Fold each of these.
Amino acid sequence: MREAMKKLISLDRERGVITHIAALLGWDQETYMPESGIDERAEQLAIVENLAHEKAVNPGIGELLNRLEGEKDLSGQEKAYLRVSRREYDKETKLPAGLVSEMARQTSLSQAAWVQARKNNDFKRFAPHLATMIRLNLEKASALNPGAPPYDVLLDLYEIGSTERSIADVFAVMKRDLVEILGAIRSRPQSDDSFLRRRVSPAAQARMSQYFMGALGFDKHRGRLDTAAHPFTTTLGRDDIRITTRYIEDYFPSSVFSTIHEAGHALYEMGLEVGPDYSGTRLADAASMAVHESQSRMWENIIGRSLPFWGAHYGHIVPMAEGALEGVALEDFYKGVNRVEASLIRTEADEVSYGLHVIARFELESALIKGDLAVEDLPGAWNDTMHQTLGVEVPDDRRGCLQDIHWSMGSFGYFPSYALGNLYAAQFWTAMKAQIPSLERSIAAGDCSPALDWLREKVHREAAALLPSELVLKATGSSLDPSHFTGYLRKKYSAIYGF
Amino acid sequence: MREAMKKLISLDRERGVITHIAALLGWDQETYMPESGIDERAEQLAIVENLAHEKAVNPGIGELLNRLEGEKDLSGQEKAYLRVSRREYDKETKLPAGLVSEMARQTSLSQAAWVQARKNNDFKRFAPHLATMIRLNLEKASALNPGAPPYDVLLDLYEIGSTERSIADVFAVMKRDLVEILGAIRSRPQSDDSFLRRRVSPAAQARMSQYFMGALGFDKHRGRLDTAAHPFTTTLGRDDIRITTRYIEDYFPSSVFSTIHEAGHALYEMGLEVGPDYSGTRLADAASMAVHESQSRMWENIIGRSLPFWGAHYGHIVPMAEGALEGVALEDFYKGVNRVEASLIRTEADEVSYGLHVIARFELESALIKGDLAVEDLPGAWNDTMHQTLGVEVPDDRRGCLQDIHWSMGSFGYFPSYALGNLYAAQFWTAMKAQIPSLERSIAAGDCSPALDWLREKVHREAAALLPSELVLKATGSSLDPSHFTGYLRKKYSAIYGF
């Protein structure tokens, strides 16, 4: 390998190791840190994050990139690595220092205001901060790519290669179909899921979580499960990937499905192996947020809420449930954990209505960024959209446009990733089933390894070497097509609800 | 405050925060890290430790010290801070880089050889490494203080201000008395402690540990308890001090007393408050290893194995012990946890014979460093000493001179701290009892706060501002005198064994 490439990789790896130290500081803060540790923990994180930033913006990287980008005879992997490195280097170096520090300051103020505004159902308290976050994101987009429409620049930060147009095209089909499926479900009798509210102790739920980590193929030598207020997955090292869950005593499915969801993220992180030359570099990062989300949704919903999966595992879970599932038939349990009901809160939404929550946010944030929607008109526009697409009436902003943290942090362009994740997952699933005829039989027999093997080979091992659009095309043979997702939902829910 | 002093403090604080990040990496490695995380964890630690070292040897510190040491009108606290800072700066900067890297390399080889040698009872395998560690420590002593006897320089690294002479004087009295007390105990019938081997589940032991942390006044907002293979205390932040223990199912006193021991270390760390000007600096460090050990021994042995203490807590512990203590009277329990019996292994030794283990190591390591004992003669000398002082026959080197890790790491001069800790603790105890007539009545009523308050005021709050010898003199009114310790032992064990 070229000396310059080796040098670039070595700088990149050191930066990566430092980000893992920051991840440990964050993980510990959410899991075990005693409460009074928080003040110094903030100082510790600042030191490590500054160090990671210094390593990332090292001018030596810019020089190496300039030199290597001019080289001939670059291999495919080398080209991919230079593309990924260039993208991240530019993202970290193109923003003026003044803008970076103003964003940091304003984000902190904005988040604090959002917490208060949500608590007191007081949108006016948050509105000026939202306006500031929009202004700063316009400046950011302009600094990163002055020629492009700002919302496209922001979208590209999370889902590389996407534009408002490309997402709008996909979401239009998806929205039409989701509204139709939701309407069909509404016309049918609702399933009973009251047995899911029976008490199951945290210790029993922890045993279930460990059981499902094993069933999915989670390598416990390379990761672990702990509890946290909000479930998350974090990478503390190339071979140290941890997930968290929480145990709600009167709603045990919360921990079961959050553990499976986070395990899906972790399996992806564990599978990001691009060979020893590039291990620990940005080439071994995830392809995108949406691809990451496709892995968690694949395991949580497509596999983890399927009848074959529960056919294999329900008999093991009933005796672990301390009597809560006595007398509950498999079919009823399956219907219970797949109950669909339009509601107000995105994070509590089912598989069908979830996409509509995301589409609403996509439409609203693109209008905010383009100036087509004034900040003070957001609550009304929000409530109208929720009424039109989900058929729900929003009683207050707390359960409306103040429910999510994202805009208060200036994360415009992030929401679409959640829905794209579902679309990618369903398209991967269609291809996987076509290529492995025995797939569902294996899952029904308790063996998820054919699914994991397929994901490892087709998705995980590509890591960041392909753009998400290239990855989908290569893995499935066609470009992103939302009909895989809506077709999957129609088939599944017509069987459950009988329409 | 002078600008230069503020600058020095700011550099020192940043270094301190970085050492706490390293402490988190170490804590996590011993408690929760999945096993495959170890390779990258070593890289992470190397980065953080290098960074801490860079901060510690910053030439700016040297310049600030030179400037400030020449200033007039320095306050007592300023002088103390400059003394501590100078000492640490010199320790970190006076060693030639070549020696530092050779020590790192040889220590790693030596430790690996020691592990093998101990496992295979093969002293010859370790002997050449021991010789190398001695040579390197002689070079280190010469670099740090070329005019002084090498063993004095090494002792001073752990117990500042101590010399071979000062320690030998104290140990001579102690050795004479310990041999005498041990002989008296041997002449009496042995106590029964078989009930301590009854099974108590880890969960019950964990409840006991939490109970005793509460009883001692451990602030659970500023710390926590976890499990690890070898119990330890570590400081992850000014307000984040963690202890660990281990649960041996057929010997629950192990976790009870190790938790109390580590909580004693943690209470000291939590009490190192020298005011806001110097918080987070080296002035807020412990006075010495031996003073640290005095705090753990005070709580574990002097208070934690006393009859008044168990009079208050035994009634709470019996119902937590899952039947193991049914029918065991308080007096018998007290005698059981204070059983004295000379044995081969230092870390398992009781309060009386422990000091003799340490004195043997002190005598042997000083002879090794001075060249009065050849490496190949160590096993014979060890076995002779153990026979003469403890009356035990050493069956093999594994249970003899290969049992401790210290010399394999080049930590010559460390052992005396353990015994000095017992001496300091007993002398503090004598003074505390004289100053607080109701002390033992409070402890007997379950209230340890008068003891903690006294330690906070007289010991913890001084932090590193006084030399250990100054601290003992100020807190107790007299210089270190081993008769407090041996007097305490004689009184306690003559009552237990009836001599």
Note: The longest helix of chain B spans residues 3-31.
Amino acid sequence: MDPITRTTRTKLNRLPARANYDREVIHSIIDDAIICHVAFIEDGSPFVTPTAIMRQGENVYLHGSSQSRMLQHLGLGHEACISVTHVDGMVLARSGFHSSINYRSISLFGRGHLVEGNQKIQLLNDFVDSLIPGRASDVRPMTPNEINITSVVEFPIDEASAKISVGQPSDDKKDYNLPIWAGVIPLEINSGDPIPDPQMKFPIDTPAYALNYMNGRD
Amino acid sequence: MDPITRTTRTKLNRLPARANYDREVIHSIIDDAIICHVAFIEDGSPFVTPTAIMRQGENVYLHGSSQSRMLQHLGLGHEACISVTHVDGMVLARSGFHSSINYRSISLFGRGHLVEGNQKIQLLNDFVDSLIPGRASDVRPMTPNEINITSVVEFPIDEASAKISVGQPSDDKKDYNLPIWAGVIPLEINSGDPIPDPQMKFPIDTPAYALNYMNGRD
């Protein structure tokens, strides 16, 4: 795939070596995420809202209640900025100044639109499997009313960039002589033992996709 | 402490039962966070950027390079919206419609300002200990140049709200009779074994704050 063309909004002013415009890299950072943060402007003020995200091909999708202020606004085609961020580790340098965080993030700029009809129904089912791979075939089918009161907004991955920071600290040359421990503390999201709903009326085995959730997403 | 007065921006239109305006609740959600997402408007477009966050009293602080487009903009007092989000679990309901995510989040609206002088130096040291409790006394002291080329922006916690979703799914009454597994998959961020910088020139024991990072932050 061709890399994404950079714009004034996606070009990194500082530390350009951390920037990446490869579609595969941007896709994998989105696919590893459960949620994103969406910024938009309403009544002249900036807003930012966390919400689940799903990617298919060269589009990302947000969904939720049709009453959601954010989805109503974005569905009208107002400009948005979407951020996905993974915090992968704390970087302990020999100075506070060079101490930092390892991360993988993407920024996506653009205007979305509402998806309707059969495509919306398909995407809502896909959302279940995107968030919990294997789950969609286990839940009861959607009702027409549920479909009506849920919105899906599509954004093309046109104007986007990734920013990645990885590895050990970059300390000042002379600081390497100091007797200070330096290194990286890796961070990751883990899933714990599933907690069955006490209101289940039947003995039902916990599904494999719940027992092994974070590994199953990889 | 008195709860925060709600405004049109912080009042929840939907699911108002999930909203919380208690300062203690808002503080604890911020204190559990490593990063936040900051939205702002530049040249008429929305931007959102992930960055580390620290709270002291009724203020939160962001910091970074003085060259940062975001910090320059926020330091001038332009409006911002700050979001902190913790994803605590996946909620597997008997329908896709009621499936959801457990989370704790805050939204903070306001205008910041640059902090200078001794307060800035103190805050930069505090940032090291806020992100890695116990680390500040181990790193080499900041240089005057490092202080000069770093900015700290302060935001008051005036217009803010928390939003919390916790517990088991709320399914449609008749769906409880379906033989579908339902429950919660808990999620948490864990720290792994610290990875020492291979460029250390002395044998130095890994500090306790690195060995036990996520527990030490609690």
Note: Chain B has a mean pLDDT of 95.
